[in-house]
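Researcher: We're reviewing a set of sequences before deciding which ones to prioritize for further study. For each one, I'd like a predicted 3D structure that I can look through quickly. This is Major royal jelly protein. If possible, include the structure in token form so it fits the rest of the review sheet.
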Amino acid sequence: MRAITMAALLCLGAGVAQAQEADTQAPAELTPVLKSETLVFNGITRTKDGRLFSPFQRQQKDKGIQLGEWIDGKPQAYPDTAWNSWKTGDDASKAFVGANAIRIGPDGDLWVVDKGAAELGGAPLPGGPKLVQIDLSANKVRKVWPLEAATTQKSFIDDFRFNGRKVYLTDAGQPGLIVLDLDDGSLRRALDGHPSTVSQRPLTGENKVLLSEKDQPIAIHADQLEVSPDGKFFYYQACTGPLYRIETKWLDDKSVSDAERGKHVALFAATVSTGGTAIDADGNIYASDTDNLRILKFAPDGSQSTLVQDPRLVWGDAMWIDEEGGLWIPAAQMNRSKAMNGGTNRIAFPTTIFRMAIGVKPVRN
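Model: Here's the predicted structure for Major royal jelly protein, in token form for your review sheet.
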């Protein structure tokens, strides 16, 4: 595929995505597995032995947990109450201010990205942006990886993926990527302001343009990301799509300029407004469609099909594929939250996490 151009970028949209779509598959069984009558979550991760964790989004200032383990169907503050008790004025480096994404790493630890701001679009606090590594055997924080050196007051560290000893992170506020080297702790920004990291159209959910609490259109820049099973390709997009890819060698090479790096970015698929993604061991990427309430499946060649469509899948967020070949889908309803619905909360409880069998194994880079 050729390197992207702005003209190619602007021509992509929902209509193109639908035109390229393959025949829809037969409906799969979508099973509710976790519910909450009071809490809003935007992700799920599962250990090999079945432990389940989610990041939670506070709906009231200074109240509510940020990270929880599901025990007997109910989330408990994890790894302890102290890490979940941050309030305005506290040290932002020693507790979760705005946990946004989690996953079990290839080392078996639980990793958590904290955007360091208590509200969507807020400036990160000193010491707030961080990646927190938690030892699941001891249920204690093993290490905190500060990210502040690679952020600005506009930054919103959104999500992350592993590739060997590298961690790739997306900055949805100051559009760009961040590369963390776990061997020496160094941080580098990449593709800053590149068209592939910048949102090019309004963010939508249930076919409605989403507005901040100040009634302003919301822009969520570089957001979803995945690494191919062989570690060769890095896929990423703004929340509104489309999906791009670049060979990881161009991200990993410190000597390459951003201008040169940008020449190797290619369009991959015309995704639409998306809440979350996952990738399987065959290289298929699953992406939620927040307007049409479905999960799309993109084959390694970029061709598209619909995995499942269901009115319950309101804002499918960060998904997870378990060891038994099951896809876990949080119906986060983020588009109905105060932060994205002009200050009015329309979330319909209970919030639900679904699971469906897809019969393929996960990637554990």
